[in-house]
Design goal:
- The protein is an alpha/beta fold.
- The protein folds into two domains: about 20-40 and about 285-400, Aspartate Aminotransferase, domain 1; about 40-280, Type I PLP-dependent aspartate aminotransferase-like (Major domain) (Aspartate Aminotransferase, domain 2, 3-Layer(aba) Sandwich), CATH 3.40.640.
- Helix content is about 45%, strand content about 15%.
- It has helices at about 5-20, 35-40, 70-85, 100-110, 135-140, 160-170, 185-195, 210, 220, 250-260, 270-305, 325-335, 340-345, 360-365, 375-385, 390-400, and strands spanning about 25, 55-60, 60-65, 90-95, 115-120, 145, 170-175, 200-205, 225-230, 240-245, 320-325, 350, 355-360.
- It has a seven-stranded mixed beta sheet, sandwiched between helices. A two-stranded parallel sheet has the order 1-12.
- Helix 6 (about 160-170) packs parallel to helix 7 (about 185-195).
- The longest helix has about 40 residues, at about 270-305.
- It is globular.
Length: about 400
């Protein structure tokens, strides 16, 4: 007989599924919708299982795995890794990292010695907070220096980046941002870094789905040594991470350091769900990715035309799954901070990032197209800037998309 707390928990989960799964339009750039099949695998018996392949002696006998019963688990991982290598056009890939942040650690810890000098984009210029001085660099003793990302769109310019590499002489350059609108001049950066024996890491956490779909840039072909990132943002998998490279020497160092140095159990239900997503991506990923970018640009034009201030207007707003509000201008014109705007829109069943980002990944996954972005912009302006009650219109429209288009 379930307890009151168990019944309460069940009610909360059902309410969440109704609210987030059928009752809102989600424009958060850090989230996406997982397919029904992938969700089924997340809830499978794999959720409580281990596997630990090995080739070592224990009590006088050779063991190939610390656990029995892993015949299917190990094959699922092999399938997932092979699919990841195909999708990212890489020679080697692993789906074991538990998140994008853990994927970063999976690359940095075995490949960079303590006290390495690292160039990364500052959070003040749109970079990921995890690379800020008090976080990953502090844990491993890295000296962090800023890689310039200039202008309102936080763009990395080739000559500024090359000059920073020549001046700082880093052991590694990390390319990756949380506010990620435009591709990098990666060939020029890699040429400069490699001339000084520095590794180039490409953190594609936000743009992983666009990279996979050929709609952003192709990091491993353009000079990155290692590609890694989150699997649940523009890429529409379950929460987790992956890593890929064309270099056998680097992969062997990374793969050999994962177990016990970075984590223990890699969560095999997640790997099965990610494998399903990778296979889905092979079928629909290119159309999905190109539609995401087209939706972002169409939504940018529609919002700007209605008086919503966005950065990088002169550069077409974005080439990714994100738009970025001009927060200072938003407050000047409309008397609203980005957080207050997001809270107002949440009450109208429209979810935005409280720090000023607007994402098109999940609405594209549902099936919205560029010609519908004018209607979306109208709801965002009326519900957010004008304070109208548009929740019934949003819910009515949302019900037109009961299933995922790209699955």
């Amino acid at each position: 007989m379930p307890t009151d707390e168990e019944r309460r928990l069940a009610a909360l989960v059902r309410a969440h599924d109704r609210w987030r799964g059928r009752g809102v339009f989600n424009l958060l750039p850090s989230e996406n919708a997982v397919s029904p099949t992938a969700r089924k695998y997340l809830a499978s018996d794999l959720a409580g299982r281990y596997t630990l392949p090995m080739a070592s002696e224990f009590d006088g006998e050779m063991l190939d795995n610390s656990y029995s019963g892993t015949r299917y688990t190990d094959e699922i991982e092999r399938l997932a890794n092979a699919a990841a290598a195909r999708v990212f056009r890489a020679r080697y890939a692993t789906t074991r990292p538990l998140s994008g942040h853990i994927a970063a650690l999976s690359a940095l810890v075995p490949l960079l010695p303590p006290k390495s000098r690292v160039l990364a984009i500052s959070p003040d210029e749109g970079g990921y907070d995890g690379y800020a001085p008090g976080f990953i660099p502090a844990v491993f003793g890295y000296t962090l220096r800023p890689l310039p990302a200039t202008g309102p769109g936080h763009r990395v310019r080739a000559e500024e980046a090359r000059e920073a590499i020549r001046r700082e002489r880093p052991n590694a350059v990390i390319l990756g941002q949380s506010f990620f609108l435009f591709p990098y001049p990666l060939r020029e950066i890699a040429e400069e870094a490699h001339a000084r024996d520095a590794l180039v890491f490409y953190d594609a956490s936000h743009v992983l789905g666009l990279v996979a779909g050929g709609a952003f840039q192709d990091p491993l072909r353009e000079g990155a040594d290692v590609l890694y990132g989150s699997t649940h943002k523009s890429f529409f998998g379950p929460q987790g991470g992956l890593l890929a490279t064309d270099r056998q020497d680097l992969f062997e160092q990374v793969d050999g350091a994962l177990t016990w140095r970075i984590f223990d159990n890699a969560h095999w239900n997640r790997i099965a769900g990610l494998a399903q997503t990778l296979l889905e991506f092979e079928r629909v990923g290119r159309e999905y990715a190109s539609t995401v970018v087209a939706n972002s640009q169409a939504l940018g034009r529609a919002l700007s035309g209605r008086g919503v201030p966005l950065v990088a207007e002169a550069e077409g707003f974005t080439e990714s799954h994100q738009l970025l509000l001009d927060r200072l201008e938003l407050r000047r014109r409309h008397g609203l901070g980005s957080g207050a705007l997001a809270r107002r829109l949440e009450a109208q069943r429209l979810l935005l990032d409280l720090v000023g980002r607007v994402g098109t990944g999940e609405i594209t996954r549902l099936g919205l197209t560029p010609d519908q972005m004018d209607r979306m912009a109208d709801l965002l302006v009326r519900g957010g800037l004008q304070g109208e009650r548009v929740a019934p219109e949003v819910l009515w429209w949302r019900r037109e998309f009961p299933a995922l288009r790209f699955a």
